[in-house]
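Data availability (excerpt). All sequences and predicted token strings are deposited with the supplementary files. A representative entry, Peptidase M48, is shown inline so that the format can be inspected without opening the archive.
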Amino acid sequence: MAEIPPSILRFLALRAGGATHTSGLLACMAGVLSICAWLLGGPVMMISAFFAITLLLLLGPMVSSDMIMKLLRATELPRQNYPALFEMAALLSERAGLDYTPRLYVLPGKGVNAITTGKDENTIIALSRDAIDGLSPRQLRAVLAHEIAHAWHNDTRILMMTDILYRATWTMAVFGMFMFFFDSHNPPVWLVIALGAAPSISFILQRAVIRDREFAADHGASDLLGGPEDVIDALTHIEQINRRTLRLIPYRSTEPPALLDTHPTIKARLEALHALPPVFTGDFFRQTKR
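Structure token line:
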């Protein structure tokens, strides 16, 4: 990765930049879809594709957060057994300006892991058992702050947008390839290459969006906690736990940067956190959501 210019590394969220650029990455994904549609059917196909995408984004319901928990075999965390954890979540949600407190679930499996899904009062934060039992209260609070930053920024909706754009690009490219191979068309080689590469490019951009949201959530957690120290401590400890408990499984976040990773490397995240102001500024939660 040393030969890749730093600007490209930052754009692809392999390294943190000065600010999030999710909107730019989404625009690139939309551009890839536009090119596919234009190549297959000109402006009419392009307009039709974006009309369909807009309808899906506006009217398409998100998968229920409860359904996702069932698929992950996660169970609701009993409040009476973990009152401090629920109090942490309530205080952090209030500090972030949320008018709800996410429900807490526990994930099966080894390793420290946490996910956020749903929106508004249906938001769920699921923590792995190793996170609940293996982290100190301050480290666990940092993990919760990171997930609440995801909820504040409505990242579930953003990731749904990337999924729709990627799947639409893949569907259109595959349709075009089948049309060329099984019809009487004899397309130029460059057109076949362009349609064949479009889904891969869209997928790489989708993964970059996810990594960008992780950098943003780290920033948000730092602001919620009054500085990056607890987030740095939590990430360092999480890497140690996962190296130990997942030693038989390739743990992606400990490897060199990869275009297909969903998370930046721990090293890149720590560098970004060390670059943040050491005291609370609140900048993240004064930003306009985008």
